[in-house]
Amino acid sequence: MRVLVVEDERVLADAIATGLRREAMAVDVAYDGAAALEKTGYIDYDVIVLDRDLPKVHGDQVARELVTQRSGSRIIMLTAAGDVDDKVEGLELGADDYLAKPFAFMELVARVRALGRRSAPPLPPVLERAGIRLDPGKRLVARDGKEIALTKKEFAVLEELMRAEGAVVSQEDLLDKAWDEHIDPFTNVVRVTMMTLRKKLGEPQAIETVPGVGYRL
């Protein structure tokens, strides 16, 4: 899941981003509304965690712009004001959910995951291909009935390959979905992750390299 955290309190923004990354999400951060609109102009986010009281461009205007652009991103709005009128106003601006500060982090995680499921096209709860069974909800992978322990990045890469249903997935798409904007586009991290993933999946090899194009399962 690709998430954008928009929050002008840098300590809070970085803490939220770090926590979501630990939940195996790819997370970018913007510290003001102008930066948020710039990022959403070229990156398709599944979920945007949007503080309402932002400098440069107010959070309300960011929400309006995203609605005008018919963005497919789901928005969860954060604010220090938690009364009903504020919640209603935020939702009418185009937010999909609303969370008042202070909040429990695990509640934020649950809400982000719920919105992410709504932003994604319907998929079977369990993915199966080439004898591999991947359960996104339980974060379990097995091949021919034998459970396989994967790192978060290996799991994310395998999930993207299985979601493609036999289509080729480029390195750029894997970087976009499994990492975040700070990853070096010329890094060999995808190749290294693919090497360890293939080793763990065992024989016969399930992942095919399509030279100059990407990978296919």
Describe the structure.
The protein is of the alpha/beta class and 217 residues long. It folds into two domains: 2-119, 3-Layer(aba) Sandwich (Rossmann fold); 127-216, Winged helix-like DNA-binding domain superfamily/Winged helix DNA-binding domain (Arc Repressor Mutant, subunit A), CATH 1.10.10.10. It is 41% helix and 21% strand. The protein has eight helices and eleven strands. The chain has helices at 10-22, 33-40, 59-68, 84-92, 105-119, 152-163, 171-178, 189-201; strands spanning 2-6, 26-30, 47-51, 74-79, 97-100, 127-129, 132-135, 140-143, 146-148, 208-210, 214-216. The strands form three sheets. A five-stranded parallel sheet has the order 2-1-3-4-5, with helices on both faces. It has a four-stranded antiparallel sheet with strand order 6-7-8-9, covered by helices on one side. A two-stranded antiparallel sheet has the order 10-11.
Write the layout of secondary structure elements.
Layout: E1 2-6, H1 10-22, E2 26-30, H2 33-40, E3 47-51, H3 59-68, E4 74-79, H4 84-92, E5 97-100, H5 105-119, E6 127-129, E7 132-135, E8 140-143, E9 146-148, H6 152-163, H7 171-178, H8 189-201, E10 208-210, E11 214-216
Parallel strand pairs: 1-2, 1-3, 3-4, 4-5
Antiparallel strand pairs: 6-7, 7-8, 8-9, 10-11
Helix pairs in contact: 2-3, 6-8
